[in-house]
Amino acid sequence: MRDLEQIPALIGEIYDAALKPSLWSSVLVKLGNFVGGSAASLYSKDAKSLSGAVFHYGGDIDPHYTHLYFTKYVKFDPFTSAHVMADIEQPICVADVMPFDEFRKMRIYEEWVQPQGWVDCLTTPLDKTATGAALFSVFRREEHGPADDAARARMRQIVPHVRRAALIGRAMEQKSAEADTFADTLDGLSAGMFLVDGTGRILHANASGRALLADGAVLRAQGDRLLATNGDAAQALSDIFTGAGQGDALANTKGIAVPLTGRDGERYVSHVLPLTAGARRRAGANHAAVAAVFVRKASIEAPSPPETIARHYSLTPTELRVLLVNVEVGGVAETADALGIAAATVKTHLHRVFGKTGVNRQADLVKLVAGFANPLLA
Q1: Which of 83, 101, 117, 165 holds its CA 20 to 30 A away from the CA of 254?
Q2: Distant-in-sequence, close-in-space partners of 12: CB < 8 Å, separation ≥ 6
Q3: According to the CATH classification, is domain 179-297 in 1.10.1200.10?
Q4: pLDDT tens digits along 182-209
Q5: Quick check: 276 pLDDT over 60?
Q6: Which residues contact 42 (CB under 8 A, 6 or more apart)?
Q7: Which CATH class is domain 305-371?
């Protein structure tokens, strides 16, 4: 019951952060506590370059250890491939990748995880590219214990809203979101954007939004009302606009993301940001708007080469990681050193990889991985 009471307020603060990024730090502290952890972070990782960056964090995260992670320990992290391969909005933790006993013997645990007092990390992808992902993580200390079903359930309740807020925030990146210049800010976005009232009447549209209306394939204006060309989507948007006057209550029950399909079959997605609650009230009040609607073409989430290999041969995340590192650095000893695990463990995983892929030499593994390389990404 306590969780249910917290959710509406949390959702409101998440969407406030979409317009005011300085709020993310305090919001992430609350999200970490809600899920059951001591810290939370929004960041990105790339499985090919073994690089990344932190966008926002809140809680007991030490910037020194963050720097160490991306400069040294990311190459030892057995979870990078698992994070990139995971489904969007689906949380994973240590137990989904390997046994805890095996994890605690690894170099990254002994030198990076344990000194911070952490024991587990619940992570979900918010968006993906061919080789990387934008991620939301909640870090758990010894007193919290490993992530359990209750923590996963709480994560699933909030992560759709975190994802929408992050996507909207990214669309507005490097733009001013002050209320008195809100319309000017939105005019510079590449995504189509509309400010609407409770009936769906268009109060303001940016250049990209006007272009979508002129094209008429996915959106149209009936009189001055914003409508989707698809009947089901049109009704869904209408319901959201009507409910937006209630603030963030509708976001918790129906959600505010609506998939759109144009007459030519092209897929778009719309994200609706209520403007009648929290710090967003001022932005909407200047235009009598109850919501801002962001519309962009849906990206095709092409699987990365590592993801394709794993699915093709039914490799576990750990087996995939051992395979990729072994191909990169060579022998068993070198792979064990790079991953911070025992040589015997590497041999066990390689034996399973050889069995699943049907090859029996390291040189054949190199050829196998090279065969999955995408020439468009080279």
Answers
A1: 83
A2: 247, 248, 277, 278
A3: no
A4: 555 556 566 788 888 888 999 888 888 8
A5: yes
A6: 24, 28, 54, 55, 56, 57, 126, 134, 135, 136, 162, 166
A7: mainly alpha
